[in-house]
Amino acid sequence: MKKTTVQLLDDLDGTVIENGSGATVSYTFDGDSYEIDLSAENLAEFRAAVKPYINVSRRVGYVPAKPRAAGSAGSDRAELQAIRAWAAANDVQVSDRGRIAGTVREAYANAQAK
Questions:
Q1: 0.85 exceeded by the pTM?
Q2: Residue 49 is inside which H or E element, if any?
Q3: Structure letter (DSSP) for residue 66
Protein backbone atom coordinates (compact mmCIF):
# COMPACT_ATOMS: atom_id res chain seq x y z
CA MET A 1 0.00 0.00 0.00
CA LYS A 2 1.28 3.44 -0.87
CA LYS A 3 0.26 6.73 0.74
CA THR A 4 1.01 10.11 -0.81
CA THR A 5 1.03 13.17 1.43
CA VAL A 6 0.81 16.64 -0.05
CA GLN A 7 2.08 19.58 1.99
CA LEU A 8 1.30 23.21 1.26
CA LEU A 9 4.50 25.29 1.40
CA ASP A 10 4.94 29.02 1.82
CA ASP A 11 6.02 30.28 -1.61
CA LEU A 12 8.19 32.99 -0.04
CA ASP A 13 10.30 31.03 2.45
CA GLY A 14 9.42 27.36 1.85
CA THR A 15 8.06 26.65 5.34
CA VAL A 16 5.26 24.11 5.71
CA ILE A 17 1.82 25.67 6.10
CA GLU A 18 -0.10 23.67 8.69
CA ASN A 19 -3.88 23.23 8.33
CA GLY A 20 -5.70 26.33 9.44
CA SER A 21 -2.69 28.65 9.32
CA GLY A 22 -1.71 30.77 6.37
CA ALA A 23 -3.66 31.09 3.16
CA THR A 24 -3.57 31.16 -0.60
CA VAL A 25 -3.80 34.78 -1.72
CA SER A 26 -5.08 35.72 -5.17
CA TYR A 27 -4.53 39.20 -6.54
CA THR A 28 -4.35 41.12 -9.81
CA PHE A 29 -1.75 43.71 -10.70
CA ASP A 30 -1.24 45.47 -14.05
CA GLY A 31 -3.83 43.17 -15.62
CA ASP A 32 -2.07 39.95 -14.58
CA SER A 33 -3.58 37.60 -11.98
CA TYR A 34 -1.38 35.98 -9.36
CA GLU A 35 -1.72 33.46 -6.57
CA ILE A 36 0.70 32.85 -3.70
CA ASP A 37 0.64 30.53 -0.68
CA LEU A 38 1.73 32.27 2.51
CA SER A 39 2.24 31.20 6.13
CA ALA A 40 0.36 33.18 8.78
CA GLU A 41 3.45 35.31 9.45
CA ASN A 42 4.11 36.14 5.79
CA LEU A 43 0.38 36.67 5.19
CA ALA A 44 0.36 39.32 7.95
CA GLU A 45 3.40 41.00 6.37
CA PHE A 46 1.76 40.92 2.91
CA ARG A 47 -1.45 42.46 4.28
CA ALA A 48 0.51 45.17 6.10
CA ALA A 49 2.50 45.96 2.95
CA VAL A 50 -0.55 46.37 0.67
CA LYS A 51 -2.91 47.93 3.24
CA PRO A 52 -1.90 51.57 2.54
CA TYR A 53 -2.62 51.03 -1.16
CA ILE A 54 -5.88 49.18 -0.58
CA ASN A 55 -7.09 51.88 1.80
CA VAL A 56 -6.99 54.48 -0.98
CA SER A 57 -8.06 52.19 -3.85
CA ARG A 58 -11.47 51.73 -5.50
CA ARG A 59 -13.16 48.33 -5.76
CA VAL A 60 -13.91 47.41 -9.35
CA GLY A 61 -15.45 43.95 -9.06
CA TYR A 62 -14.31 40.89 -10.93
CA VAL A 63 -11.35 41.29 -13.29
CA PRO A 64 -10.92 38.20 -15.46
CA ALA A 65 -7.48 36.69 -15.84
CA LYS A 66 -5.71 36.98 -19.16
CA PRO A 67 -6.45 34.01 -21.40
CA ARG A 68 -3.78 31.33 -21.53
CA ALA A 69 -1.65 31.00 -24.61
CA ALA A 70 -2.82 28.44 -27.16
CA GLY A 71 -1.65 24.96 -26.24
CA SER A 72 -0.97 25.87 -22.63
CA ALA A 73 -1.71 22.87 -20.44
CA GLY A 74 -2.79 24.31 -17.10
CA SER A 75 -3.27 22.24 -13.98
CA ASP A 76 -4.80 22.91 -10.66
CA ARG A 77 -2.56 23.42 -7.64
CA ALA A 78 -3.57 20.13 -5.98
CA GLU A 79 -2.65 18.13 -9.10
CA LEU A 80 0.74 19.84 -9.37
CA GLN A 81 1.45 19.14 -5.70
CA ALA A 82 0.43 15.50 -6.15
CA ILE A 83 2.72 15.14 -9.17
CA ARG A 84 5.64 16.68 -7.27
CA ALA A 85 5.00 14.43 -4.26
CA TRP A 86 4.87 11.36 -6.54
CA ALA A 87 8.07 12.47 -8.29
CA ALA A 88 9.92 12.92 -4.98
CA ALA A 89 8.79 9.49 -3.76
CA ASN A 90 9.94 7.89 -7.02
CA ASP A 91 13.31 9.67 -7.40
CA VAL A 92 12.12 11.67 -10.41
CA GLN A 93 13.71 15.12 -10.56
CA VAL A 94 11.26 17.99 -10.79
CA SER A 95 11.59 21.63 -9.71
CA ASP A 96 9.79 22.88 -6.60
CA ARG A 97 8.03 25.55 -8.65
CA GLY A 98 7.20 26.23 -12.25
CA ARG A 99 6.37 23.99 -15.19
CA ILE A 100 6.44 20.20 -14.87
CA ALA A 101 7.78 18.41 -17.95
CA GLY A 102 5.34 16.46 -20.08
CA THR A 103 7.38 13.28 -19.60
CA VAL A 104 6.99 13.57 -15.81
CA ARG A 105 3.23 14.22 -16.16
CA GLU A 106 2.92 11.19 -18.42
CA ALA A 107 4.87 8.96 -16.01
CA TYR A 108 2.65 10.17 -13.14
CA ALA A 109 -0.52 9.49 -15.15
CA ASN A 110 0.73 5.99 -16.05
CA ALA A 111 1.54 5.27 -12.39
CA GLN A 112 -1.93 6.41 -11.30
CA ALA A 113 -3.61 4.25 -13.96
CA LYS A 114 -2.08 1.07 -12.50
A1: no
A2: helix 40-55
A3: P
Kindly report the CA angle at 61 between 40 and 39, in degrees rounded to 5? 10
Return phi, psi of residue 29, to 5°.
-145, 130
pLDDT at residue 16 tops 60: yes
Q: Where are the domains of the chain?
A: 1-66, 72-114
Q: What is the dihedral of CA 17, 23, 27, 32, to 10 degrees?
A: 30
pLDDT band of residue 106 (cuts 50, 70, 90) is confident
Q: 13: Cβ–Cβ under 8 A, 6 or more apart, which residues?
A: 39, 42
Alpha carbon distance 11, 34 (integer Å): 12
| CATH topology assigned to domain 1-66 | Wheat Germ Agglutinin (Isolectin 2); domain 1 (3.30.60)
- At 37-81, the pLDDT tens digits run 999 999 999 999 999 999 999 988 776 666 655 444 556 788 888
Are the beta carbons of 6 and 28 closer than 8 angstroms? no
